[in-house]
Amino acid sequence: MFHRILEKPMAPPACCKICGAASDSEREYWVDTGTWEEFYGAVYYCAVCFEEIAALVGLIPTKEANRIKGQLEDARSEIRELKSSIAALSSLGIDVVTISGFVKDHPISLEEIGDGLGENIDRAATVVEQAASQGPNDVSDSKQRRKSKLDIDVG
Description:
Blueprint: E1 4-6, E2 30-37, E3 41-46, H1 47-56, H2 62-91, H3 96-105, H4 110-113, H5 117-134, H6 139-154
Antiparallel strand pairs: 1-2, 2-3
Helix pairs in contact: 5-6
């Protein structure tokens, strides 16, 4: 039954039905319900009250949704970069599946990683960069060094 979002309520009483905030208050927006109550007037909800009602039914504010969308896009971008890195490693003859199998056999929970996640990612990036710089001729030797390094790091 909500008809539109307004910058300010227009018809009397021009205030929020719930909290009574007046149209001259600093509210991001107003919801015009499109209803009129006898002896009251037009029914509006201010942004604050409307978002509180929405939260009760599990909805999130637009700002929070946009933040989550940004995180999702960042994750998608990281996945694309990782896929590209895997393709580059594979083209150098590095068996990513074997490394992946090793990691699957030695799982680490996020709780164990904790705040060190960035360090682990940096360490993994260093290993990949070293392997890539060695070229395809040194693949078997670099695999053994990486496996030894992973044995030490992962446990």
